[in-house]
Amino acid sequence: MNKKFDENEHQNGINPNPGELIPWELKEKEEEIVGDKDIIKEQWYSIEKLAYRFVWAIVTDF
Fold first, then answer.
1. Where are the beta strands (DSSP E) in 1-62?
2. By CB count within 10 A, which of 26, 34, 56, 57 is most buried?
3. Phi and psi (nearest 5°) for 40?
4. DSSP, res 9
5. How far apart are CA 23 and CA 48, in angstroms?
6. Spatial CB neighbours of 46, under 8 Å, sequence gap ≥ 6
7. What per-residue confidence (pLDDT) applies to 17?
């Protein structure tokens, strides 16, 4: 079952760490993960780093 992102999740004690936009804990709750969770988590953090850097590049350019 696919759970929607809760906009008030930060009030439940899950906050993104520096360098993340969406914490892995939230993404992991969205739907069942099929396969090796460690590989998927590693790839998730790689993509998160790129997204975070992109956002900061846009913010600092303007």
1. none
2. 26
3. -65, -40
4. G
5. 9
6. none
7. 81
